[in-house]
Design brief:
Largest sheet: 4 strands, mixed
InterPro entries: NF-kappa-B_Signaling_Reg, PDDEXK-like_dom_sf, Restrct_endonuc-II-like, YqaJ_viral_recombinase
Helix content: 25-40%
Strand order of the largest sheet: 1-2-5-6
Protein name: YqaJ viral recombinase domain-containing protein
Shape: globular
Radius of gyration: 17 Å
CATH architecture of one domain: Alpha-Beta Complex
Strand content: 25-35%
Pfam family, one: YqaJ
Length: 114
């Protein structure tokens, strides 16, 4: 009942482990310039942990069991890449919310219709 659709699985010979996920976003140039999902943290441009894309990546890592995902934003000739590691705290929060929705909202409605 939990699914994910990462854009790819990639191999990094220096990675630990060597296989990870790939998630690509290709915004139009106006949205890229504004980039509400990116911010500078400790002098480095990074995906905001509070943004939906971060939670999307964590959900993909949870579902696939992978340890990392390269998050790529490509807009015209500019490319941003960030390796995002599993965040067990986020995953636990996510799993609790998904379980609550699935078992106590969706299934209640589904079974009531049966």
């Amino acid at each position: 009942w939990i699914g994910a659709s990462p854009d790819g699985i990639i191999f990094d010979p220096l990675g630990q482990p060597q296989f990870g996920l790939l998630e690509i976003k290709c915004p139009n140039i106006k949205n890229y310039v504004e980039a509400p999902y990116l911010k500078v943290i400790s002098g480095t441009l990074q995906l905001k942990p509070s943004y939906a894309y971060y939670w999307q990546v964590q959900g993909q890592l949870l579902t696939t069991g992978m340890s990392w995902c390269d998050f790529v934003v490509s807009a015209q000739e500019d490319v941003f890449i960030q390796r995002i590691q599993r965040d067990e705290g986020v995953m636990e929060t996510m799993k609790c919310k998904i379980d609550m929705f699935y078992f106590h909202v969706f299934m209640d409605k589904f079974l009531a219709l049966s």
